[in-house]
């Protein structure tokens, strides 16, 4: 491949030329001067987290002026830019000591897309049956949530205002009506239909719950959040056995315990080696050590529970759409997509119905 050719014959690697790609490879090599390189082995990635970006893994073969030859994988992500750009988070957080995947460089696509070139992590996710991996998952989250923000970085961050959504009675009223109609007509399957027929909790109870949570979230202290801290958004630098965070496009200012609320709820599944209580106590102790703030466990758990209820409410529109159309990115089989999202929607509705029935 000559330096004036595109990286792949059909320009499938986002239409980038070798000249554009060369500075990225120079960062990959870093310690030596680059003589030549070739990009090969392109592979697209799909999965549960693939809706907002195109993701590829390539193999970069290179030769240095000193005669060293190597082949190294590189992870490439293209997305239409968020504000601030995702690369901005990688630069700031890595410089601040937060364990994030290393960013080798960033380019802009022909339509203004942000194209990130990141280190390839050999293993994604955590082994939930291994306690040490769960402890490490909690530790890296605390490091992110408690990082000190300088004024310049903080000003660029999106500030989540969940109360606006929660207290939009007109929108939520229409949505809950739509959801109930689909449920009772059987459009979402027999299980959700039976759930609505069984429970007397309907629109007004959920609207009251949302409004109350909107009032509460206004009062909660803010902090840096990842915004999507699921197992699929961490991976391992295997040689160092170090867990790293990636997918930073949703990093923002929000309720300080937003991320840990989802993590703790995920530990209620039977395959988790840690209990909800163990993980909550451990996270809170680390958080207090790093912030110097005292906080009662009961206060922490109350915040977590409220934030989880907000997460459930805000997930309903997306889950309803997918439960109806089955359009998912991990399979072309729409019926399978519907089946999975109906199961998830049922679980969320059941939790919300039970929670709203307990409220005054």
Automatic annotation (TrEMBL):
<dbReference type="InterPro" id="IPR002575">
    <property type="entry name" value="Aminoglycoside_PTrfase"/>
</dbReference>
<feature type="domain" description="Aminoglycoside phosphotransferase">
    <location>
        <begin position="80"/>
        <end position="289"/>
    </location>
</feature>
<dbReference type="Pfam" id="PF01636">
    <property type="entry name" value="APH"/>
</dbReference>
<protein>
    <recommendedName>
        <fullName>Aminoglycoside phosphotransferase domain-containing protein</fullName>
    </recommendedName>
</protein>
<dbReference type="InterPro" id="IPR011009">
    <property type="entry name" value="Kinase-like_dom_sf"/>
</dbReference>
């Amino acid at each position: 491949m000559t330096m004036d050719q595109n990286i792949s014959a059909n320009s499938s690697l986002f239409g980038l030329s070798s000249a554009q790609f060369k500075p990225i490879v120079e960062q990959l090599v870093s310690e030596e001067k680059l003589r030549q390189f070739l990009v090969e082995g392109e592979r697209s990635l799909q999965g549960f987290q693939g809706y907002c970006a195109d993701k590829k893994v390539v193999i970069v073969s290179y030769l240095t002026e000193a005669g060293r030859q190597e082949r190294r994988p590189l992870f490439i992500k293209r997305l239409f830019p968020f504000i601030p750009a995702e690369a901005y988070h990688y630069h700031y957080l890595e410089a601040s000591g937060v364990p994030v995947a290393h960013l080798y460089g960033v380019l802009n696509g022909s339509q203004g897309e942000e194209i990130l070139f990141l280190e390839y992590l050999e293993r994604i996710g955590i082994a939930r049956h291994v306690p040490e991996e769960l402890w490490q998952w909690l530790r890296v989250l605390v490091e992110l949530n408690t990082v000190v923000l300088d004024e310049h970085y903080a000003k660029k961050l999106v500030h989540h205002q969940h109360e606006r959504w929660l207290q939009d009675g007109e929108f939520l009223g229409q949505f809950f009506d739509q959801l109930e109609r689909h449920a009772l007509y059987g459009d979402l399957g027999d299980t959700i239909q039976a759930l609505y027929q069984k429970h007397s909790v309907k629109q007004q109870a959920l609207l009251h719950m949302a409004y109350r949570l909107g009032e509460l979230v206004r009062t909660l202290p803010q902090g840096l959040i990842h915004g999507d801290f699921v197992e699929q958004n961490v991976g391992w630098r295997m040689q160092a056995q170090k867990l790293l965070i990636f997918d930073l496009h949703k990093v923002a200012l929000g309720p300080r315990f937003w991320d840990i609320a989802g993590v703790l709820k995920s530990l209620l599944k039977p395959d988790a080696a840690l209990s909800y209580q163990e993980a909550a106590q451990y996270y809170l102790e680390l958080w207090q050590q790093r912030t110097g703030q005292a906080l009662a466990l009961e206060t922490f758990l109350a915040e977590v529970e409220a934030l989880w209820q907000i997460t459930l409410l805000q997930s309903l529109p997306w889950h309803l759409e997918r439960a109806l159309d089955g359009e998912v990115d991990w399979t072309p089989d729409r019926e399978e997509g519907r089946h999975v999202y109906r199961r998830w929607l049922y679980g969320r509705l059941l939790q919300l119905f039970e929670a709203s029935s307990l409220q005054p």
